[in-house]
TrEMBL record:
<dbReference type="GO" id="GO:0042262">
    <property type="term" value="P:DNA protection"/>
</dbReference>
<dbReference type="InterPro" id="IPR025984">
    <property type="entry name" value="DCTPP"/>
</dbReference>
<dbReference type="GO" id="GO:0000287">
    <property type="term" value="F:magnesium ion binding"/>
</dbReference>
<dbReference type="GO" id="GO:0006253">
    <property type="term" value="P:dCTP catabolic process"/>
</dbReference>
<dbReference type="GO" id="GO:0005829">
    <property type="term" value="C:cytosol"/>
</dbReference>
<dbReference type="GO" id="GO:0047840">
    <property type="term" value="F:dCTP diphosphatase activity"/>
</dbReference>
<protein>
    <recommendedName>
        <fullName>dCTP pyrophosphatase 1</fullName>
        <ecNumber>3.6.1.12</ecNumber>
    </recommendedName>
</protein>
<keyword id="KW-0460">Magnesium</keyword>
<keyword id="KW-0963">Cytoplasm</keyword>
<feature type="region of interest" description="Disordered">
    <location>
        <begin position="118"/>
        <end position="141"/>
    </location>
</feature>
<keyword id="KW-0378">Hydrolase</keyword>
<comment type="subunit">
    <text>Homotetramer.</text>
</comment>
<keyword id="KW-0479">Metal-binding</keyword>
<dbReference type="Pfam" id="PF12643">
    <property type="entry name" value="MazG-like"/>
</dbReference>
<comment type="function">
    <text>Hydrolyzes deoxynucleoside triphosphates (dNTPs) to the corresponding nucleoside monophosphates. Has a strong preference for dCTP and its analogs including 5-iodo-dCTP and 5-methyl-dCTP for which it may even have a higher efficiency. May protect DNA or RNA against the incorporation of these genotoxic nucleotide analogs through their catabolism.</text>
</comment>
Amino acid sequence: MNKGDEGGEDKEVVSLQTLSKKMDDFAKARNWEKYHSPRNLLLAMVGEVGELSEIFQWKGEVARGCPDWKEEEKVHLGEELSDVLLYLVRLSDACGVDLGKAALRKIELNAIKYPVPKKTDDHCVGDGEDSSSKINLNEEN
């Protein structure tokens, strides 16, 4: 894991590979691998998405950053988001999909499908014809 300096404080950068390894070790230590079929992992993830949805169910529109939320609500939100992420990482492993590479490819495909509008006030979905909108996500930053 890497440490990065962001905004004056150290924040741990966690990779998908780190999460994958930790989840694999966790399941092996408990002899749970036999239960971690793609179907079971998907259904478990859907259940967690339901729990995440319940958090927002009666809140109406929520401002970015959840500024009006109590600290314990944000902690609960983080836990449910984590559950969804961890099941997604585990599911991608069970299916033999490199989730990081698949996500980068999907962003590239979306950039082609939804090019940057030619006018700043044009918010319509593009037709995918503008090749200048393609972004290369394989380069290191």
